[in-house]
Design a protein that fits this description.
The complex is a heterodimer of chains A (563) and B (410). With 563 residues, chain A is an alpha+beta fold. Chain A has 3 domains: 97 residues, Ubiquitin-like (UB roll) (Roll), CATH 3.10.20; 119 residues, Alpha-Beta Plaits; 236 residues, Rossmann fold (3-Layer(aba) Sandwich). Chain A is built from 14 helices and 24 strands. Chain A has a 7-stranded mixed beta sheet. In chain A, strands 1, 2, 3, 4, 5 and 6 form a 6-stranded mixed beta sheet that branches. In chain A, strand 15 and strand 16 form a beta hairpin. Chain A starts with 8 loop residues before the first strand and ends in a 26-residue tail after the last strand. The longest helix of chain B is centred in the last third of the chain and has 25 residues. Chain B contains 15 helices and 13 strands. Helix content of chain B is 42%, strand content 16%. Classes of the chains: A alpha+beta (563), B alpha/beta (410).
Chain lengths: 563, 410
């Protein structure tokens, strides 16, 4: 475990109270640290400051100094005299300095907030009843919190396009747009795909794509997340579900080793969307569009829902019985997966140790986009290293396993998740007893004598170690299909059947106690409770010689990795 | 002369910016960040767009070399190797004249490489705008010059003297200001300071428009005459049978002054004044003391035939059309005010509209990124406070026939 750096603290005066805040952060962040909300639309902590919405207007003053001597000017009571800026200032572009005074709740500030809210609503269509953003709309929230509550506007509202297709996944309602430019800045600064801009001027300004371009990059849906109103909507999610019905579960994206923090939104066991969750160490507030679509695999048609013996449906107890029969006493090879959780990989390691099995693991590699889709397309390869399941950096094929099968060093296989044919095994090599544990149909299912269905990442809890050796836990978002066992329980059961030993506990706190005690020393001192609370930076220096494939990317610095 | 000496002369001359704000030019140059090591740029703001103002155009059309000379001196002072003239799109003839003049100046070694055989070089480029009032705002101008939409920048941190064109230190001056630099160096700062009045040095070109017999542009020493002398003397007075109703003294964004008003107050030196409209001295401080500003020097005269609400509607239409749309108060407020005054002029006036207009303007003022917010709010605030009755009475005359021609403008 590595603890984060301390920041320099300064004292400022917030609404008449002295408070400590890190030096140089802006007034919005400083006030938020002390429970004071400064409402804002255009400001986003991970984008440049635009200062155009004017919602964060506050009063600001600094200690006055004598021009000639540079000494502080004092009030009669000895306190420093404060020079208040006559006009209100925007909180987003006001960086705190020692002794700064801020007023966020004065009458003047309230007047500003009421005025801006009124202006933002005069040309807003007020179509909340049919708007997807309703329930998570800053315009709604701030109108109730900071608005006047009534309208003085009797003129006709501006009319703009209602459903513009900006790209394959994003639809724009221009009338709702408050021209905050967050989406434009995101496209320029984070996605590095400068396709959005405003045309026309004044109140008729309209967001649009540049001629001949479309918002098609793999980060386009982040513009929907950061849109403070219902202007940018996800074409996939649009008109599907009211957001207040959704249950949000913190999760980790399993698309690649970036390990984006996510929120899985579900209702009554059905996932409706995935959105990024802020983590400044990992993904800021972003994630890929492709990662958001992974939930579709939960309900896909080729999902494995029942145990199979020789291709026929069977009860899970029969399947376990049979799996024990065909694997026990054999020269077992285990094909593990870097898509399994740390907990599962630890249990597989235990299983391999007590059955003298050889462990094989392949990597899945693709192109690195330099942001949040890393070249390693598995979420937990470093988990396999940290649990000591593998020592070498894996290749993208199971060639080693093929050789062992040919030589007869391995004559039975327990396969997790991987598609054997795609991993380079020939049909003859697969002609050994195979037990397959996985979620979806593939060539391994066809070759397997016994198939045990498993849970997708959304249906189980666990943890992954991302490309920066940050250990992050995720929670079960939706229940798995009826009768499908959790992966840890499944491995534990197989452990019992194959080795004859007692079933290892799958209670998470027990598991983590065991991991901290038995596994690599990087886990020492980590408890389940702590893991649930925070993401944990592990010391990855023991693996610094390995040829990791990740490229320089958001919060992943080649020079500094592993931390 | 060394650059510092030139700067010192300009500071001594006390010349104030002629673009509208009236900030001392020598002081502006002092704020320039010379330590950054980045290139320094000089920009001449020739985007003269304030309604009622047409002085820079005359200078550029009639004596472009005066501007070029002033700019080269300014560039030498601040150490700029590249200077720009940002000229508004509508002055296409002006751009041609300037380009021709620059060629001539280059031929004679007054501009370009090794000016007058010295090792000082400065290139001068004319850049044409595309027809937007906001490009006259210096940071909007800089954005436009960079090839972007002219959204003014937030200050702090983007003060042009530190982070201007291409994030380099930049000085932006008005055409008339830069022309004055030439004369300051010709005659010396102290001598220049003797023209006009203290704190109001030099001459100014006043642009008089509206219902006077001889509208036009007139150059006078600052404070040499009063508003009354200008209107009734220089401009030949009002049209026959008319009486004076109101004057906007410094371009459309300056606050309107009523003909029958008294302006009382105390000068900075402690002396008291009690002026009628005609007594206001034409310099920087006079209109300021009367609660308005001399702005860009555009004096708009209105006689008793003017419908004040329609005049307001006209001004509001301009600002709603020209708001860049970047920040909320100006974007939404200016169009809202336009819609209100348009409705008032089209037979839909309500008695409460005057208060509503004033409240909307108050919600804009002081809350925007650039000074456009004030420019859009001040006319409304002053029209309502000075001519509230005209706005209230509009509601009572809703059924009267409208002047279709004036409605087209709003």
């Amino acid at each position: 475990m590595i603890s984060p750096k301390e920041q320099e603290l300064i004292t400022i005066n917030l609404n008449g109270k002295e408070v400590e805040v890190p030096n140089g952060i802006n007034a919005i962040e400083a006030a938020a640290l002390h429970g004071k909300e400064i409402p804002h639309y255009c400001y986003h902590s991970h984008l440049s400051v635009a200062g155009n919405c004017r919602m964060c207007l506050i009063e600001m003053g600094t200690p006055m100094r004598d021009r000639a001597t540079g000494d502080a000017i004092l009030e009669e009571d000895g306190s420093p005299k404060i020079g208040w800026v006559p006009k209100p200032v925007i909180g987003c572009a006001t960086n705190v300095s020692p002794g700064m005074h801020l007023r966020t709740e004065s009458e003047k500030v309230k007047g500003c907030q009421e005025g801006i809210m009124e202006f933002l609503l005069v040309n807003h269509p007020l179509d909340c009843p049919i708007c997807d953003q309703a329930g998570e709309c800053r315009l709604q929230e701030f109108a109730t919190d900071y608005g006047r509550g009534y309208s003085r506007y009797v003129e006709r509202k501006n009319v703009k396009p209602k459903r513009t297709r900006l790209g394959p996944r994003v639809t724009l309602d221009d009338e709702r747009c408050i021209l905050c430019s967050r989406c434009i800045r995101f496209s320029q600064e984070v996605a590095k795909d400068d396709v959005l801009g405003f045309v026309d001027r004044g109140s008729f300004s309209t967001l649009t794509c540049f001629p001949g371009k479309e918002l098609a990059n793999n980060y386009s849906l982040n513009t929907v997340d950061i849109c403070p109103v219902g202007a940018l909507t996800s074409t996939d999610f649009r008109f599907k579900m009211r957001v207040w019905f959704l249950k949000e579960t913190p999760s980790i994206c399993s698309e690649s080793s970036a390990g984006c923090n996510t929120l899985v939104s579900s209702r009554e066991g059905v996932i409706h969307r995935i959105t990024p969750r802020r983590n400044d160490l990992v993904n800021d507030s972003w994630m890929t569009d492709s990662g958001r679509m992974l939930y579709k695999s939960v309900k896909s048609e080729d999902r494995l829902l029942q145990s199979q013996i020789d291709g026929e449906k069977a009860s899970s107890s029969d399947a376990f019985e049979r799996a024990g029969d065909i694997l026990k006493g054999k020269k077992l090879g285990i094909v593990a997966s870097a898509r399994s959780t740390v907990e599962e990989l630890f249990l597989i390691k235990q299983l391999a140790a007590s059955t003298d099995a050889k462990v094989f693991l392949r990597g899945h590699f693709g192109e690195d986009d330099g942001i949040l889709l890393s070249a390693d397309r598995t979420p937990n390869l470093r988990g396999a290293l940290a649990t000591e399941l593998i020592e070498q950096y894996p290749s993208d094929h199971l060639t080693d396993l093929g050789n062992k099968l040919d030589q007869g060093d391995v004559d039975a296989l327990l396969v997790f998740s991987e598609d054997l044919e795609e991993s380079g095994l020939s049909e003859s090599q697969m002609n050994v007893p195979i037990v397959y544990v996985g979620t979806h149909q593939n060539s391994s299912v066809k070759a397997a004598k016994v198939v045990l269905p498993a849970l997708t990442v959304f249906e189980k809890s666990g943890s992954f170690i991302n490309r920066s050796f940050i250990l992050q836990s995720f929670k079960q978002a939706v229940p798995g299909p009826a009768g499908v066992l959790g992966d840890t329980q499944l491995i534990s059961e197989l452990h019992h059947r194959l080795s004859g030993e007692d079933k290892p506990s799958t209670v998470p706190s027990d598991l983590w106690a065991a991991i901290a005690e038995k596994s690599n020393q990087v886990f020492s001192g980590i408890s389940y409770q702590e893991l649930l609370k925070n993401c944990i930076q592990l010391d990855g220096s023991s693996w610094s010689e390995l040829p990791f494939v990740e490229q320089q990317a958001l919060h992943y610095n080649l020079e500094k990795q592993p931390a | 002369m060394k650059p510092e000496d030139v700067g010192e002369e300009v500071l001594k001359s006390g010349v104030r910016g002629r673009g509208g704000a009236g900030f001392p030019a020598g002081m502006k140059w002092k704020f320039l960040d010379r330590k950054s090591g980045k290139p320094i740029y000089l920009i001449c703001n020739a985007d003269e767009s304030e309604p009622g103002t047409f002085k820079d155009r005359q200078i550029m059309y009639k004596d472009p070399h005066q501007l070029i000379e002033g700019m080269m001196i300014a560039a030498y002072t601040i150490g700029a190797k590249q200077a720009f003239i940002y000229i508004r799109a509508e002055f296409f003839e002006g751009a041609r004249i300037l380009n021709r003049a620059i060629e001539e100046a280059k031929e004679h070694g007054f501009c370009g490489n090794n000016i007058l055989g010295t090792d000082f070089s400065c290139d001068l480029v004319v850049h044409r705008g595309a027809g937007a009032y906001i490009c006259g705002e210096e940071t909007g101008l800089i954005e436009s010059l960079e090839g972007k939409r002219p959204n003014p920048r937030i200050k702090p941190p983007y003060f042009p003297a530190v982070l201007g064109l291409y994030q380099c230190p930049t000085i932006v001056n008005n055409v008339e200001t830069l022309c004055n630099v030439k004369h300051i160096i010709d005659m010396g700062g102290d001598e220049f300071a003797k023209i006009g009045k203290p704190n109001n040095t030099g001459t100014r070109i006043w642009c008089v428009s509206g219902q006077v017999k001889r509208p036009g542009y007139y150059e006078f020493e600052c404070g040499a005459l009063t508003l009354g002398e200008m209107i009734f003397g220089v401009c030949g007075g009002l049209l026959p049978g008319r009486s004076l109703k109101a004057v906007i003294p410094g371009g459309s964004s300056a606050k309107i002054l009523r003909a029958d008003e008294r302006f009382k107050g105390t000068h900075k030196d402690g002396t008291e004044f009690d002026w009628g409209l005609e007594d206001i001295p034409l310099d920087f401080d006079g209109p300021m003391a009367a609660g308005s500003m001399s702005g860009s020097g555009g004096i708009i005269v209105m006689d008793d035939t003017v419908d004040i609400v329609e005049a307001m509607a006209n001004i509001n239409a301009f600002y709603a059309h020209e708001s860049c749309g970047q920040c909320t108060p100006c974007r939404e407020g200016s169009l809202w005010m336009r819609k209100i005054t348009k409705r008032m002029c089209s037979g839909g006036a309500r008695e409460e509209d005057a208060d509503l207009l004033l409240s909307v303007a108050n919600q804009i003022e002081g809350r925007t990124i650039c000074a456009f917010g004030e420019a859009a709010a001040w006319p409304t605030q002053s029209f309502i406070s000075k001519f509230r009755d005209d706005f209230v009475n509009k509601a009572k005359s809703n059924n009267e026939p409208r002047n279709e021609k004036s409605l087209q403008l709003i």
